[in-house]
Amino acid sequence: MTAKISYDDVEVGTELPAQTFGVTRATLVRYAGASGDFNPIHWNEKFAKEVGLPDVIAHGMFTMAEAVRVVTDWTGDPGAVVEYGVRFTKPVVVPNDDQGATIEVSGKVAAKLDGNTVRVDLVAMSAGQKVLGMSRAVVRLA
User: How many other β-carbons are positioned within 10 Å of the β-carbon of residue 58?
Assistant: First the structure.
């Protein structure tokens, strides 16, 4: 696959379509099984609270993966992501109810770089708090 977005068609400030991702306790159990990360802070409410967390929290790598989906959906090619990094600033708290939590992600082109690449800055929010800081992806466009 190759990116469907042309380098010549984007400018600094181009906004990517924002997305919202739901996270439930069931989502966390499935992610734990797929990733092999069975840390009880991600599924055991009693344990999470004993170690000082407000409740069960989403895996950081899960949150990071959901956020970059805004970029991969925009480009149409997950392989277009050349670099990606974040700082974990706040946890995504996932209550034990029918609704869980949401992660709202927006992004925009922050810089045009060499080699048909752009830097996309992402903002990921949950419960009104920024959950990822310095969330940036370098993406190779068509």
Answer: 26
